[in-house]
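Work Package 4 report. The design task specified in the project plan requires that, given a folded chain encoded as structure tokens, an amino acid be chosen for each position. We show below one input record used in the internal validation round.
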């Protein structure tokens, strides 16, 4: 019987198939390399940002704005709260400390959840809790219950602060990310300033300090609606290729972060910044009020007026300082890869003497005091968006919420969680050193001389206590200089991890089916 089988192909056509596959593989590899190179070198501008992305960023900025408004409204009405609850300086400082303690304790939990679950839902729930506890707390009639609800506010705010920056980092890359982070952190000094202003002005208009605390919960309701309807939860590492990286265990995340020296040193530096900003933001208006009383020979000075001016200064310093720091970093990092931490370090070195001189002039020249504090805060504001940017580019996408959470934990645990309380305690202790005959239970005669002595004691004790912030600024600068020694290496390590994950995913998707196809073609009968 005639053999009807197709004769075996003894030509070299199968080599051509292999060559074609090789060419295809080479082409795919070339394309992958091109994409990687494009993703690593391309620098899209703001024109590439879509309308929906702009809306999402503006919503996140709005929530961050009212977040910090709420946080510093207390400082704007502090004297009224002191009079109402009959508190001393240490009890006053404890209000902010209780808030920050709960804030930092729950930050790691929300960081863990933010790396693994829907971030929109977590943020919305947190903002709801913060609004509810702030509103309910404003009706409390005792110091203990007011302190309790103030602590609960910190839990809600922790959910937002740990997650929102990571959403921005997943939506943008390179200079666009830096610009968006500058816009986001721009809300911190502006929100803080608005907190002083709205708190004081609302209290004055209603003749009740409690109404100053009820503004942000009302705005928070609109924030929740906008988060749920206008913000999407992007894939982690969406614009960097980080979506190829699988999540690791929480313990592995912590170990990796502890080995990341840039992250650890920048966190230590940011802790110093947090200490200084927390102390100045809380005690600044009260300290200036004491100084103005000495200038006016003991006449009463309205804290609302001082808080208003202090808030305007904080806002303008933020309006200039945050974007200027971001712009400076974007320009200089092209030539010097260590530019980011160096800008932060120099900013603190500039801020320290300005804040010191501002506190010295508080009792003698109001204009000089406000001017020096303005420039001191401007230099301090240079670092906000830069620190956030550094964290995001030295940490891989699947660990960023955890990194944000632990930076918040350490920055607040050793920073602004204790600084208002510590400054208050030091100030109270110094009163008995400055004026030895001022003893507990001693009733002063109502004379102008003794009242003037008391005003001097109040001012000097708080002034000397605030001098501690100058030393902390210098310490923070040293930590930023240490960060500069490792920042380039740690950024390269994070970039390589993302690139390796992309390579692994590409090889699994492209090469294995291609090998099966070739084997089928050359398989002998």
């Amino acid at each position: 019987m005639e053999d009807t089988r197709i004769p075996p192909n003894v030509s070299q056509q199968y080599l051509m198939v292999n060559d074609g596959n090789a060419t295809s593989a080479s082409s795919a590899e070339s394309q992958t390399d091109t994409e990687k190179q494009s993703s690593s070198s391309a620098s899209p501008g703001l024109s590439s940002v879509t309308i929906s992305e702009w809306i999402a960023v503006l919503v996140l900025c709005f929530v961050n704005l009212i977040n910090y408004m709420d946080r510093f409204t207390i400082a704007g009405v502090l004297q009224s709260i002191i009079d109402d609850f009959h508190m001393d300086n240490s009890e006053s400082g404890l209000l902010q400390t209780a808030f920050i303690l709960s804030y930092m304790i729950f930050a790691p939990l929300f960081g863990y959840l933010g790396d693994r679950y829907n971030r929109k839902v977590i943020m919305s729930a947190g903002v709801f809790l913060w609004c509810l506890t702030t509103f309910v707390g404003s009706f409390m009639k005792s110091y203990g219950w007011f302190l309790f609800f103030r602590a609960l506010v910190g839990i809600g705010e922790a959910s937002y602060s740990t997650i929102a920056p990571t959403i921005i980092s997943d939506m943008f890359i390179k200079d666009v990310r830096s610009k968006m982070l500058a816009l986001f952190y721009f809300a911190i000094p502006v929100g803080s300033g608005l907190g002083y202003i709205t708190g004081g002005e609302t209290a004055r208009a209603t003749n009740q300090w409690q109404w100053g605390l009820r503004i942000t919960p009302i705005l928070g309701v609109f924030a929740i609606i906008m988060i749920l309807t206008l913000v999407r939860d992007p894939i982690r590492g969406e614009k960097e290729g980080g979506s190829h990286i699988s999540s690791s265990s929480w313990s592995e995340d912590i170990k990796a972060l502890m080995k990341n020296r840039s992250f650890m040193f920048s966190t230590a530096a940011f802790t110093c910044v947090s200490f200084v900003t927390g102390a100045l933001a809380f005690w600044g208006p009260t300290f200036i009020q004491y100084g103005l009383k000495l200038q006016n020979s003991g006449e009463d000075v309205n804290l609302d007026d001082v808080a208003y001016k202090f808030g305007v200064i904080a806002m303008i310093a933020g309006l200039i300082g945050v974007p200027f720091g971001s712009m400076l970093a974007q320009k200089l990092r092209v030539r010097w890869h260590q530019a980011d931490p160096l800008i932060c370090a120099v900013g603190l070195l500039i801020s320290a003497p300005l804040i010191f001189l501002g506190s010295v002039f508080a009792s003698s020249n109001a204009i000089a005091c406000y001017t020096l504090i303005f420039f001191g805060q401007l230099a301090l504001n240079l670092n906000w968006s830069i620190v956030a940017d550094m964290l995001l580019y030295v940490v891989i996408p699947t660990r960023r919420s955890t990194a944000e959470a632990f930076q918040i934990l350490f920055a607040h645990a050793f920073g602004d969680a204790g600084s208002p309380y510590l400054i208050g305690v030091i100030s109270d202790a110094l009163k008995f050193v400055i004026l030895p005959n001022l003893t507990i239970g001693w009733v002063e005669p109502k004379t102008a001389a003794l009242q003037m002595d008391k005003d001097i004691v109040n001012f000097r004790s708080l002034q000397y206590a605030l001098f501690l912030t100058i030393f902390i600024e210098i310490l923070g600068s040293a930590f930023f200089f240490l960060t500069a020694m490792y920042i380039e290496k740690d950024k390269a390590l994070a970039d390589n991890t993302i690139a390796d994950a992309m390579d692994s995913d590409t090889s699994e998707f492209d090469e294995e089916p291609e090998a099966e196809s070739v084997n089928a073609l050359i398989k002998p009968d």
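The two ends are 20 Å apart (CA to CA). Validation will be extended to a larger panel in the next phase.
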